[in-house]
C-alpha cells in the first residue's frame, strides 16, 4: 500500500488556469473581503468581524463595548479563513502591505484573548459566564479550529509566530478543560479535529494529537450528551434540536458509522479529521469507517458536480439518491469539505478515486461558488434554475439565480479563497522517496523530499500535461477515472505502464521530460434510475468539467431536449471571454410551446444545436434559466 507521509510541498506557484484564479484572489478577493470584514464595502451585508474583536478586547478590560457583538455566533471564523487565504497568497506572492494588514488584525485578535487562553468574541462580549455550556450551538471549538488553521498557515508562510502563540495558548485552555479537568463534550460543529491535526504537524506538540483523538473517540459514545447539556441550561442560540443525533453525527461512535448524515459541512469536516487521524495512527477501524462514509457520499448522496448536502432543511444529507437538481442545496463549503476529506483519504491510501472526486468538486461546485470577477458568491449551488421560481417560490427560495455580494452567514467566500490559494496542497503530495501528482496545474513545484517539477498545461480545457523534471526521484501521476484512454511519453518514448489504483509510477531523472495526454472527448453522463428527479435525462462532461445550458446561449433552455446519442462538438476557445472557456455544441430539438399548461396535441419540434458552457461559469451573464441535466429525445 502506498501512502503519503507528508503532503506539504515547500513551494508551489501556479501559472495558467489555476494561477489566474490565485492572482484573482490576491488582487480582488482578499482586499474586497477585508473591506467587508471592516464594514467598509459599499452596498454589502454588514460583517462587524473586526469590530467584534475590538469590542471583545474592551470587554475584557471592563470598558463600554458600544455596539457590542453583531453577527452569527461563528462570526470570528470569517476572520480566520481570511487570514488563512492571505497567508497562502503571501507564500505565493510576498506583499509587505498585505502582511502588515494581517499583522494588524492579529494584534486585535490577540487583544481579545482572555487571560486563561479562551478566545471567542460572542461569549466574551455577550456573557462570559456561559462559556462551554452550549457545545451544540455555541461554535466555540469551531471558531478555535479555524483560527488554529489560520495560525499554522500564517506561521508557515511568513515565520511569524504571534497568532500561533495565541492559538497554542487557546489550545492549552481547551486541553485543560476537556482533558485535564475531564469536562464532557464534543464539538457541535466539527472542525477543530482537523485543525488540531494541523497544529500537531506544525508544532510537534503531542497534546494536540491527543486532543484531536479525544474529540473523535468521544463523539457518539454518549448519543444523549447534547440532550443532557440542553437540560442544564435555560437558554439557546438558535434552537437546535439536541435529540437529532443523525444531524450532529453523534448517534453512534465514529467507528460504527456507515451513512453520511446530517449537516453536510459538519459531516465532511469530521470525516476529514477521522481520516487524518487514521493515517497518522494507523487505525484500521477508523479508516474502514471513513471508507464506508466515503462510499455513502460518493455512490449515493453526491451530485454529478461534486455537490453534497441535497436539502435546505438543515443544509444536510437526506437519504440515498435524493438528489433533486432544482432544490439542491450543495453548499460551496460542503464541496470544499469534501475536498478536505478526499485529500485526507489519500494520506491513508493512494487511490485515484479520491483525487477524481476532489477534482470534480473543485472545478465545478467550488469554482462555481464564486463569480468570474471574484466579487459575488453562491452559498447554494443548484443544478437547475428557473427565474420566477428559483429564489422566489418558498420551496426554491434558497436557490438564487444570481450571486449576492455577501451573506450574513458568510462562511463560503473566505473558504473558497483559502482553498484556491492553497491549491498546491491538494494538487501534490509526497512521501520520503516519491512525489504525487493528484491534480494538474501549470506551474512549478518543489517537494520537501528534494524532487522538483515544472508542469506546463492548459488544463482543464486542454488535456495534455507536460512535466519537466528538475530534480528526479519516483513520480506517481494520477490517471483520471473519466479518461477512457491516455498516452504517456517519457523522453520521446511511449510507455506501456499499468495503473495501480488509478496512478502510474515512474522513475524520473534530472532533465527528463514526461508528457501525459488524456482523453478530450466529451461524454453524456446518465444518472441512475434510482435518482427520480433526473431519471431518463443526461448531463454533459468533458474532462473534469461538467457542462450546463443557459438561456443566454439557447433562448428558452426549458424548451430543449438533447438528441439521444447525438453528436457533441467541441468549439474553439472563446477568446472574447476573459475566462477563455471552451463551449460545446450538442445536437438537440426544440419543442414549440402551444401556450397551454397541458394539451392533447403533441408539440412540434425543430432540430437545433444546443450550446453548453462549463457549470462553474453559469450565472455570469445576468439572470437566466440554467440546466445541467437535460431531457433526451
Automatic annotation (TrEMBL):
Domain Non-reducing end beta-L-arabinofuranosidase-like GH127 C-terminal: 523-631
Pfam families xrefs: Beta-AFase-like_GH127_cat, Glyco_hydro127C, Glyco_hydro127M
InterPro entries the UniProt entry points to: 6-hairpin_glycosidase_sf (IPR008928), Beta-AFase-like (IPR049174), Beta-AFase-like_GH127_C (IPR049049), Beta-AFase-like_GH127_cat (IPR012878), Beta-AFase-like_GH127_middle (IPR049046)
Domain Non-reducing end beta-L-arabinofuranosidase-like GH127 catalytic, first and last residues per copy: 15-424
Domain Non-reducing end beta-L-arabinofuranosidase-like GH127 middle: 437-518
GO BP terms in the entry: carbohydrate metabolic process
The protein's name: Glycoside hydrolase family 127 protein
Lineage, opening ranks: Bacteria, Bacillati, Bacillota, Clostridia, Eubacteriales
